[in-house]
Amino acid sequence: MNRKILIVSVIALIAIITVGSASAGFFDFLTGDSERAPDELVCAAMPHGEEPEYGFDPMHGWGYNDGGVEPLIQSTLLKHGKDAKIVNDLATDYEASSDYKTYTVNIRDDVKFHDGSKLTAKDVAFSYNTAKETGENTDLSMMKSAKAVNDTQVKFELDKSDSTFVHKLADLGIVPEATYDNSTYGQNPIGSGPYKFTQWDKGQQIILERNDDYYGKKPYYSKITNLFLDRDAAFSAVKSGDVDVAEVHYTYADEDVDGYHLERFKSVDMQGISLPLVPAGQETQEGNPGGNDVTADPAIREALNIGIDREKVIDTALNGYGEPSTNGIGFLLPYTYENFEDGKVDEAKKILDDAGWKDTDGDGIREKNGTKASWTLWYYPTLVYRESIAIAVAEQAKELGLDMQLQGSNWDDIEGKYSTISIVWGGGGCDPSSVAYNYDSRLAGSGYSNPTLMNDSSVDALIDQARSQETNASYPTWSKMAQKANSHNPYIWIGSVDYTYFVNDNVDLSPDTATVYGHGGDIWGNVYDWKAANATA
Prior knowledge:
Layout: H1 12-19, H2 24-31, E1 40-44, E2 78-80, E3 86-88, E4 91-96, E5 102-107, H3 121-134, E6 143-150, E7 153-158, H4 165-168, E8 195-201, E9 205-210, E10 223-227, H5 231-239, E11 245-247, E12 260-265, E13 270-274, E14 282-283, E15 289-290, H6 298-307, H7 310-318, E16 322-324, H8 345-354, E17 367-368, E18 371-372, E19 374-379, H9 384-399, E20 403-408, H10 411-414, E21 422-427, H11 433-436, H12 457-467, H13 471-486, E22 491-497, E23 499-504, E24 507-508, E25 531-532
Parallel strand pairs: 1-10, 1-11, 19-20, 19-21
Antiparallel strand pairs: 2-3, 4-5, 5-7, 6-7, 8-9, 9-10, 11-23, 12-23, 13-21, 13-22, 14-15, 16-22, 17-18, 24-25
Helix pairs in contact: 1-5, 6-8, 7-9, 12-13
């Protein structure tokens, strides 16, 4: 599910721009000069638009958002290419044992870090072992060890079968063992990726320059400056012509801006609202409170899932920039399955009536055995579309006689309460594990995993079965698992979100080679193919 990221506040001047008009001079201050070479870009397009707390350190989550984001500065063993296909990066090939407990990866022998030192399998093993210790990147809990066999081969040993581990090989940026310092690396990172770190002005921008010694396809753009702007400020920067690529909020996506065009990318970033399955008074694995007396009633969960009109939510909350879904699996993924019909308000009301939820005092809220059908729906207000989704769903729930009380706050305020309230979550990537984390009882209440406290051994068995199967053969099993899990209605799945960007007409993002957008987006996934609109290949 959604990984916790500390938002670094945008400086006061940007806040002013958000509510007023953008000043070209201000953005010139950030980027240094309003004039830039044809092969230089200014963007405002980080995953979620957020600045990483620990800087640009893969050991602390940089480059990861539920399934791999192009880290730019560092290389990864594998990548998710177009159509979510696994392709080589540092790796030349890899092999999994028949039981999917051992992975052997051979890497290139011609790769150097930006400081000129040679990258070897020892650096790969070090990076994975360190990331397992920090636990802030991809889930490596199944990995026992990573060992360098020689300079160009690394072996991964797992403690259980897991065919999805191949996706973990696309998640982690590789850092140099010899010079890595946990406390300082993120502020001055050295990698072997297509761009070299040049400058970080905290709260403002990061500047990257092309690595001309890069072993792969070299990007056209020699310099990228990325401004840390929220989506409102990013649109202001578009209107003033100070950025070339900017992620914008859906409310701006239908605007016409001279010299810019809109790029819209479908994603597998799914939005859903959790519904705890057990009564209050439970305790999670981490010792936190769990359960909710209202959502524990199956009739409440079924009525919401049948009664909520998801297409209407997408239209009102996202201006139509999304894809409704009742199953929580992106339609671009090979293990999705058919959605059921929703928006059946009368049927939903009958389910509640038959279960004994009645509005006996005429206040518009149903009750049963003295318990009001009223509980908290929490959302993360920094992501404005989450707030919009919460409002839209709460309005429809009110028509059913259900009172979802809205509360917007930061993650720290509700830490340890994830299993007692409803939350607007986001998550999803190319790795099927991102779906499994929603339902696995062995992870119930652990961090962000399985916040509804589902406990179905048949679901767990299907997860294990899928992980023991070859990737393509596992897809029907993953689909069967999700269908079984969703029969409990642990979430109101709303659908996937689109990622919307204003792009300068002089810039070609090569949308035909764009990678699949997971949670947080990955606009940099095909940066190797970006070029000026009039440039030759």
